[in-house]
Amino acid sequence: MELRIYLLYSAVMVLVVAARSSVNGYVEDKRESNEEYGDFLGDEPNDDDTLNDADGEADEGNTENIVIVTNQKIYNVSVGDSLTLDCETSPPGIAVLQWLHNDNIYYLGTIKTVSDTRLNLSKNGSMTISKVTPSDEGEYKCVVTQNKPLTLRHRVVVISEPIIRELEATNNGVVVEGSQLVLSCDVTATPPPQIVWSRQRQGFNENERLRESDGIFNLNSVTIEHAKPEHSGKYYCYAFNGVGNAQAEKEVTVLYKPRVHVHRSAINTAPGARAELQCSAHGDPTPYLTWYKDGSSIAEDPRYVIINNGSQSTLVVVPKADNDFGTYTCIATNSHGVHNKSVELVQRPVIEEVEADGLKLVWKIHSHQPLEDIRIQAFPLNGDNADPTNITVPLPETRGKVYEMSHEVNDLPAGQYEVIVKVKNNKEWSRNTNPVVLNIAEQSMLIQRSSVFRGAASSVAQSTTLLSTTLMYLLIRML
Ligand SMILES: *[C@@H]1O[C@H](CO)[C@@H](O)[C@H](O)[C@H]1NC(C)=O
Ligand SMILES: *[C@@H]1O[C@H](CO)[C@@H](O)[C@H](O)[C@H]1NC(C)=O
Ligand SMILES: *[C@@H]1O[C@H](CO)[C@@H](O)[C@H](O)[C@H]1NC(C)=O
Ligand SMILES: *[C@@H]1O[C@H](CO)[C@@H](O)[C@H](O)[C@H]1NC(C)=O
Ligand SMILES: *[C@@H]1O[C@H](CO)[C@@H](O)[C@H](O)[C@H]1NC(C)=O
Ligand SMILES: *[C@@H]1O[C@H](CO)[C@@H](O)[C@H](O)[C@H]1NC(C)=O
User: Fold this and answer.
1) What is the pTM of this model?
2) What is the CA(87)–ligand 2 centre distance, in A?
3) Average pLDDT value over all residues in the chain
């Protein structure tokens, strides 16, 4: 191949010399004489050659009147189009040209040195490339072959709208929690495209753009070092470059061990009263749920009914004896692990979350057994006295199984308190509730006090009770 090009090049040089001699015959003659007397006439000031060429080497220099007329240019061309690169010389028709692309010779004179059928040379020196591909991009040189070569440089920019060949993800998008997830968008586009990554999380409608904090971004890939369950969903690669845009999507599933959630961690019931214990689990693949009591499976026990529905399980229990109460455990299993949570079936009162609305506390009591004592304990947060203040709450008048309670904490000195609720039924005391913080300010107490009298009928009734109690006390003292 090298040899072939060399031979071609030699052939062209011969052609060049031949062309010169025929066109500038008289110059050749002169040159010959110069060569003859070169040593003597080297410093001859009247000699045209030495005027321009001090080193006396490129003797033809001043005799070559060939100039390149075309200016260098940047050609923007779309894939598939045809492109004509000009190299107009003057005087026309005599120059022997070479065309090079990124220093690969395409033409030596009129001889094509590559077997690319898309190339064509015109008489005026321009080279045409049909059906342009991205690999045609780069620098093109048109060289006028002579002792002192002239070079014209063109730059070709192949523009193409982004084409996404593939959006790839680690293990085809199925990864285990904690492992690495790499998404790479195989896109071709000129100029190079910008890529925007986004995802639509499983079960969500909106498409959120991935941010710096979501992963490590490279040229056309994004790496999430430790995949999490919430990373499951559809990933999008959107590429744009001013010429056009393209988008591809890929489904990603992050497999993870189950996580069990119980709706209530304690359920009150009484012998003979039906109770439903509910648990649900997340996990991918969808976990399988079973129930245990005191370390052994109750799946086959005819005393229990288990209703499984997808990722939810309900255990129906009708306790008969005391040993039917206790701890029931919901166990979720999938190929990536096991997780459990327990529900206590109890006879003590169960208090649902206490909430504070201003100075009013609201809570719910579950107790099949009759209630005997309800109290609020207020622990001062910023006092030296750690002893709680006990506020007794009147028992509900009617018996039930669920009691909706509310009580306004009016009788505490100003300060900050941590407040818990305790309830006793005929079996046991309840467990302590999570503390609620109450801020009792001087002003808010005044507002609260006045609002009591303007407030609801029940509050007024309560205050009236207070008033009558005070009157009674005064009356007794007076007697
Ligand atoms: C060629 O494209 C580039 C962007 O790729 C642009 O900046 C330039 O102006 C374009 N030139 C012509 C002659 O269209
Ligand atoms: C090259 O040019 C010649 C003459 O102009 C024409 O016949 C031929 O089809 C062209 N070839 C290509 C590939 O354009
Ligand atoms: C040279 O010829 C080709 C077609 O043969 C033409 O497309 C091109 O414009 C010409 N170039 C100049 C500079 O005239
Ligand atoms: C299962 O759960 C779904 C939704 O949580 C509910 O629509 C469906 O009725 C349930 N099926 C049974 C048999 O309980
Ligand atoms: C529930 O999980 C804990 C902690 O992983 C484990 O010690 C216990 O044995 C599990 N309980 C059952 C019934 O599998
Ligand atoms: C409130 O009751 C607790 C026990 O339930 C007791 O330790 C505490 O001293 C009581 N506080 C007051 C001020 O009587």
Assistant:
1) 0.59
2) 18
3) 83
